[in-house]
Amino acid sequence: MKEYKKTLIRFAIISVFVLSILIGFYNIYLGIFGLMIFLTLFIFYKKSNPRDEIQINKAIDEIYSDLDKINQERMYEMPISMAIVDGDGIIYWYNQAFGKAFKKEKEALFKKNIVEELEFNLTEAVKQEDFTFHHDDRDYGVVTNAFTDSVHSFELLHFFDVTEQSRQKELYRKKSPLFCYIVVDNYDEIIEQFPSHKRSEILGKVDLKINEWAKKLGSVIIEYEKDRYLMIFERGKICALQKENFQILDAVREIENDEKIPITLSIGIGISEKILGIKESQEISHAALDIALARGGDQAVVRQDEKMSFYGGKTEATEKRTKVKARVKAYGLKELMKEADQILLMGHQNPDMDCLGSAVGLLGACKALGKEGKIVIKEINYSIKSLFDYLLENKDYQDAFITPKEAEAYNKKNTLLIILDTQTVSYLESPGLIEDMAKIVVIDHHRRSGKSIENTLMTYTEAYASSTCELVTELLQYFDEKNLMNAVEANALMAGMCMDTKMFTLKTGVRTFEAASYLKRKGADTIISKILLQDDLNTYTAKSDAVKNAKIYYDNIAISTFENNTDYGKLIAAQAADELLNIKGIVASFIILKNIEGLAISGRSMGEVNVQLILEKLGGGGHLAIAGAQIPGEGNLEIGKELVLEAIEKYKKENETK
């Protein structure tokens, strides 16, 4: 309304001015008189307007002052805890609710540091949108607002009590269902080897143990196949299962039978911190079961998003007597090889005799099928130099090797990539090669660990096998192709088997010797294998030094440290670990090698100690009797020894008889 009046006054003054000018043309005296009136009105308007504005501004300031006073009183009395702090966390103001929630007795918090007084992470609170603060059994959701006074920066902190919401969320989390898949590993062996009148008795005992376990957990259990169960229980029970190391594994294994066959289970459980539907929940649990089976069974795998936890696995993987799976896999592999335009064969970094030998064996299959096959290898190390030189003596293998760079030029859509002796992405000779490959096959005898290769057309992993060469030999027996294997390829496969079994003394089964017999019929010579595995004098001397440095711990475990920056340092470490097992009373050995990359650990066992479970605690893996681990960037051998001893101590505590 006031603005409207001002506009009318301005319009009247301008009108007087215009009329005075117009009248002046007719009567000069009246025109001068009109201009005098205009000047009087104009001067009066200019003097009165600032006075009005001052009064208005003063009134506005009074209003804002009253509002600030009201806001300050309201903020102080609000039930939401609030505080103003500077960038360092110094408290400049806090309201009544904040004082009640966080003040210690009568001690004021003004000018105190919120970070030190309340152990409050100010940096994370400012950075995160959904920050939660825990104090005195209460949970607070924290919201921050930044402002400045032209000199200093401040944060207005709002603390919303979300304790009840947190409790309900945790209750929901504990009550949410988990899917648990259970498989009787050697069901087929029970059916095949047990007399008919004892099968039902043994399987009945297994079923009773599993159902008693389920009842104890208060879970629902369904036998959806003859050897498979699905159990659903509350998430809150998982901690107790982990703490007891899944005792159901021991309970089933201890079921006595006249055939002395250990009955084992594989268990897979998936957990996620994300909110998943039923379909997604059962999928991650089934994936955990696949990992347990791939690692040889007799264990439970708990998969928490991408993190894996392993329990059990105390026994070596049971050898499968039936060869049905090998026959099916052989048929599938043969068809995939026939459909491919080219075939690439690739193993792990720093390939050994088993890795290269299995690749050479499949190279013969490529030739028999009329397909171009190439072995992808970055460089020739000491472990495979003798076999590599042996192959190059034959002109058929002089063009058989390509580098990872050359392999990138191959057609990604219709090239079959066969990965041998590993199933872990980070261990591959060229990890980037699998990214665009449409057809991938994995053949390996190691227990699964780390990030495995995904999207494969076929995966053949058997942890019971002595070597990848043994698995490849079994597959090749079912190819039914003429000229499938010559003596050179048979010797390469035999050398790989001899290396991994230590000349058929470790980790051998009936099928190992059957595979060796097949290779002998194809022209393999164990003398040539022995020659290919021979060491030179320097290597033998270095191995002797590593053995000499060994010290005995826990009365029966040998640990040795040594430094070697040569290409064959890791080979020396592995061989020295084998040699230590020849000492009377030693049941397990560890060699810690220092090289330019850091520390490399080789573990060996006679079977009483599971070196795989020990070295998995250091990020490694392998088998019960043969395992390894690496600690990149670490150059202190004593630290490496302490880490190994800590891992052994944890292993012993986990495996104490309860």
From TrEMBL:
<dbReference type="InterPro" id="IPR051319">
    <property type="entry name" value="Oligoribo/pAp-PDE_c-di-AMP_PDE"/>
</dbReference>
<dbReference type="GO" id="GO:0016787">
    <property type="term" value="F:hydrolase activity"/>
</dbReference>
<feature type="binding site">
    <location>
        <position position="348"/>
    </location>
    <ligand>
        <name>Mn(2+) 1</name>
    </ligand>
</feature>
<comment type="similarity">
    <text>Belongs to the GdpP/PdeA phosphodiesterase family.</text>
</comment>
<feature type="binding site">
    <location>
        <position position="421"/>
    </location>
    <ligand>
        <name>Mn(2+) 2</name>
    </ligand>
</feature>
<feature type="binding site">
    <location>
        <position position="445"/>
    </location>
    <ligand>
        <name>Mn(2+) 2</name>
    </ligand>
</feature>
<dbReference type="Pfam" id="PF24898">
    <property type="entry name" value="GGDEF_GdpP"/>
</dbReference>
<keyword id="KW-0479">Metal-binding</keyword>
<keyword id="KW-0378">Hydrolase</keyword>
<dbReference type="GO" id="GO:0005886">
    <property type="term" value="C:plasma membrane"/>
</dbReference>
<feature type="domain" description="GGDEF">
    <location>
        <begin position="136"/>
        <end position="303"/>
    </location>
</feature>
<dbReference type="InterPro" id="IPR000160">
    <property type="entry name" value="GGDEF_dom"/>
</dbReference>
<keyword id="KW-1003">Cell membrane</keyword>
<dbReference type="GO" id="GO:0106409">
    <property type="term" value="F:cyclic-di-AMP phosphodiesterase activity"/>
</dbReference>
<keyword id="KW-0812">Transmembrane</keyword>
<feature type="binding site">
    <location>
        <position position="352"/>
    </location>
    <ligand>
        <name>Mn(2+) 1</name>
    </ligand>
</feature>
<dbReference type="GO" id="GO:0003676">
    <property type="term" value="F:nucleic acid binding"/>
</dbReference>
<dbReference type="InterPro" id="IPR014528">
    <property type="entry name" value="GdpP/PdeA"/>
</dbReference>
<feature type="binding site">
    <location>
        <position position="421"/>
    </location>
    <ligand>
        <name>Mn(2+) 1</name>
    </ligand>
</feature>
<keyword id="KW-0472">Membrane</keyword>
<protein>
    <recommendedName>
        <fullName>Cyclic-di-AMP phosphodiesterase</fullName>
        <ecNumber>3.1.4.-</ecNumber>
    </recommendedName>
</protein>
<keyword id="KW-0464">Manganese</keyword>
<dbReference type="Pfam" id="PF01368">
    <property type="entry name" value="DHH"/>
</dbReference>
<dbReference type="InterPro" id="IPR001667">
    <property type="entry name" value="DDH_dom"/>
</dbReference>
<dbReference type="InterPro" id="IPR038763">
    <property type="entry name" value="DHH_sf"/>
</dbReference>
<feature type="binding site">
    <location>
        <position position="500"/>
    </location>
    <ligand>
        <name>Mn(2+) 2</name>
    </ligand>
</feature>
<dbReference type="Pfam" id="PF02272">
    <property type="entry name" value="DHHA1"/>
</dbReference>
<comment type="function">
    <text>Has phosphodiesterase (PDE) activity against cyclic-di-AMP (c-di-AMP).</text>
</comment>
<feature type="transmembrane region" description="Helical">
    <location>
        <begin position="12"/>
        <end position="45"/>
    </location>
</feature>
<dbReference type="InterPro" id="IPR003156">
    <property type="entry name" value="DHHA1_dom"/>
</dbReference>
<keyword id="KW-1133">Transmembrane helix</keyword>
<dbReference type="GO" id="GO:0046872">
    <property type="term" value="F:metal ion binding"/>
</dbReference>
<feature type="binding site">
    <location>
        <position position="354"/>
    </location>
    <ligand>
        <name>Mn(2+) 2</name>
    </ligand>
</feature>
